[in-house]
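Standup, Tuesday
Yesterday: got the pipeline producing structure tokens again.
Today: sanity-check two examples.
Blockers: none.

Example 1:
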Amino acid sequence: MERTTYLYVTVPRTSSPTMVKTEKDQGFMPVRSNEDSEKVPDVIEESDHRGNWSRKLDFFLSCLSYAVGLGNVWRFPYVCYKNGGGAFLIPFAVMLFITGIPMVFLELSFGQFASSGVVSIWSVSPFFQGVGWAMFIVSCLIAIYYNMIIAWTLYYLFASFQERLPWSYCGDWSSENCLADHAVMYNCTFHNGVWLNETCYHSGQVNESYFNYIQGLANSTNVQYTSSSDEYFHKVVLDITKGIESIGGVKWELALCLLLAWTLVCICLAKGIKSSGKAVYFTAFFPYLVLTILLVRGLTLPGSKEGILYYLIPKWDQLLNAKVWKDAAVQIFFSLSPCWGGLITLASYNKFKNNCLFDAVLVSILDSLTSVFAGLVIFSIIGYMAHELHQSVENVARDGPGLAFIVYPEVVTKLPVSQLWSVLFFLMLITLGLGTQIATVTTVHTTILDTFTEFFRPGKRSFILLLSIAVVGYLIGLSFCTQGGMYVVQLFDNYAATYSLLFIGLIECLALSYAYGANTFLDNIELMLGRRPSMLWKISWSFLTPAALLTILIFTAVDFDPTSYGDYVFPTWAEVVGCFITILSISAIPLVALCKVVQGLIRLPNIGLLEVIKMMMKPTNEWGPRLKEHRELMKVSPDTYESQRCMMLNDFSSERS
């Protein structure tokens, strides 16, 4: 059966539609006149209103600042030493090239080619538009709870300006088991003494019978001492309850810090990417400056060498452990932050001819090197802490909030001019957090702008939308400011962007590789780069990366651990709520696909279900570069817009009648 090919051509203005018949045509089709063509720039040249990056460096630093976040400092070092130290760098590097760089390149090139937000960009395959909505929901969830971490950091920053760091001593707020300096107690027991009631007893100081009595009393009481920094964080900053069942009241000091965090985000995004592109010069470079200063200072401390060696010495037997490879893949995937929508959004403001391949590779490698570098800084300090406490590094090392708000604050109390080191450290955490938060909120903002262009683009409505996002985010975030807010943060952290991201990434890869076509996607990239990327990218997107993501997803599900915080294990109902948080985003994928199919069946009742699904998987007329001159570069195959053929035929029939 001969293929019917329809072409759009530009002809002089006419008062009625012009019909053109191609060589193998079976009928006539209306074509665009100049009058119609003149209307197109009003839509596709809207990037003048949408904006572009002022400089290429603005985009690159935004991507780097987005990728390099708090996880590089407080998660990677702990995961590395726990999984074989230096040996962990091998699976880490392998997974960087299997899942990390391919996903980053895919999303940067995808966003740059279409210059659209994460939802509107799925005109490439409307059946999978739910992937965009899933990314949007994930970004909303992350933006809400991530700012709470910045709020805690702001609280500590302000506390660092006091004459005496408030966590350096046991105040009125502390319990009877509070110990300001654990080094004194550990030094006592290290030298065969007995510690009881904040007093060290040695056999030479008292008679033997009394010493044995003291020793027996100390063993029987089994007091669990806590550091002043630990009690300050949990009793003063959080005033934490016993569990998520008791949420408690709002801590207004934290509520004000959260308000300030959202204010900072709004200031950075007040003029869209024009202002955020300037903010990233600080949020991208300042953390490296502080990390370098802290490393130099850390290397001068006793015990730092042992800490770094513990971090880097390879344990080769760990390479045979499948869990190590799973942790490497998870760390790479979540460190680079694909599937949040941020990479697509940032790239959508790029110039069409930007070399996104170079950006993808460089950002990915720098992010990974930053993680390793941050590990040197953290373990030099942890080594010093272990030396002071006469403990092994393993007993001192912690990750997550425990490192940022307990271990490091305790370390700075032992340094001269401790306020200076405290201010530098928490300023660094704030800039790391803001870099990621700015890109995440930009994703939410841009998605709404691109989806409801006619309403939000004109005048100052874009900024009003930004303020609305901040207000809603702040009001929901007040739940994190309660006494049980830490438990809510942990629940969001465990479920908002774990399983959902892996599933979103898997569907995204399959949709672009098979529904749209990896070869066609490489054609699109060739238009931007001026050369065709290697076929290795097609192999990665079509086979390696989806297989790796599916494996990680299965391993993560099998290796499931109930959510916990310290010794507290979350109840079953809380885990159910967490599962709902995960389902909230990924459910958008099948629900939107179902809606598209139903719409297609209603619009084209004479076509079967499978035909409608096939049509919905193909690009619409809106797919392609935003600017007209770039759209004309596209080499469109005859069946690219096959999904639109029936509708155009219907339009033509109505014109003739």
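Example 2:
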Amino acid sequence: MAAAVRAGGAHRGVISVTRHSTALKPQYDAVIIGAGHNGLIASAYLQKGGLKTAVLERRHVLGGAAVSEEIVPGFHFSRASYLLSLLRPHIYQDLELKKHGLKVYVRDPFSFTPMLEDGVRGRPPRSLTLGADLAKTQQEIGKFSEKDAKVYSDFLSYLERLACAIHPLLDAPPVDIPGLTQGSLRKKISALRSLKPLVKSGLKLGKNIPDFYELVTAPVMKVLNRWFESEPLRATLATDSVIGANTSPNNPGSGYVLLHHVMGELEKEKGAWGYVEGGMGGVSQSIACSARSLGADIFTNRDVEQVLIGQDGSVKGVVLTDGTEVHSKAVLSNATPYITFKQLTPPDALPEAFITAVDQIDYTSPVTKINVAVDKLPNFLAAPNSADGKPGPHHQCSIHLNCESVEVLEEAYREGLQGRPSSRPMIEMTIPSVLDPTLAPPGCHVVSLFIQFTPYLLEGRRAWTDEDRERFADTVGKDILTPADLERVFGLTGGNIFHGSMSLDQLYLARPLPSVADYRSPVKGLYLCGSGSHPGGGVMGAAGWNSALKVLADFKRL
């Protein structure tokens, strides 16, 4: 990467944090722990439903992992999450997020994979660029395989058929198994409505049900090898099957992660991903602005120490680390299930068997996020910068480094399993300032590096030291967030960006556990509303929306 790098220091500024003078009240209908996007969305829908709601965020900035921070003076970074796509369309419309300041730059092209190879006859190394223009994309693929270029459009149609069928499941809680199997006949009949999204998905899939079953259960390479023969295309597509997940393209279940990353849409364009103006904190601020307009009280620097449980075993509110008590009939936790049940809930309020099950939830993370401020555009041998220094189309893409072949990805995964940071890590590089000029001074840029595979503990036993971080980052950048740092800064247990692995045993009816898949905990009045519950991390806002519906339904019964 031909660019000067300025190291991030101790400075930690924040952009777009609106100051509000609302005082924290001693009593609310509902209290939400954590102002991540799901918590903020839940607060908006609870307010729309008539419940006075407070959101309490322990950090100085709203958004959870969707935040913008000024790590280097003048440079504003999406410090953790960095791309937007899976924000549910009905939430975007219901909360009028565009009106409340959300602006998104849709990328086209969207994927660039430069080859690490010698050029032929004086030409630069090859590269693969994918975008919305099918003819241009097929021309790019044709550099490696004419056969692959011809079938690429059929492959996209295949993925779209499967992804569209999942949408009804994202926008509704899982099937109400307890309601269908327990209680009165009236309750069982009422619970039949929870089957509607599942039936709708099945009808949408129709004859494609076997294809869907294969994709979500098989190694993604089983599918990709059947469609394509060129290694750069297979490897580029395979990156979406492992991004954020501690898995290999040759492991069963990796196909679902690929599907998970093509399910979104932006500005009604299916599968599109984009940059939020001002960084990812922009989407959190727009949600918070909408929620406040509906009457929600949202606070930063309010660290919840414990959930208050009454003598009758039901929730009574929360107590903060400074001793302040805030009483409520419902508490929604946007923290991970581990933090919710192991740190925030009194241990004697939960069954021992349930605590044992919580301990078994997998939070393994292979991710290190590195943020870099640069004083000129990165330059690639496969696509040299123009003489005027202006960005090329490839600079707006997700830039896949060390992704020339699936074997490179496999080797990076194997090294991570052995407790070593990958010597040739899989890197997804983005330069959002190419489209958003608000992020960096003129002529300069912010660069995000999403890197795999790095273990939580080195060699399975040793914590990362500053020297370890610097040694690893010397090849890529600064402001290093290893899995342990992601846990410490953002409360992501194990550093897992999804609030728990997106493996088949931790999805839908089993997310995070079968006994709490409906967002209700064993403690009456305590709910999960974060990405650790259905439909999981990345599907922006669905858990907040679904959990709010559960709370509102329970309040109607009181």
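Quick observation on example 2: Confidence is low (pLDDT under 50) at residues 1-19. Residues 14 and 69 are 4 Å apart (CA to CA).
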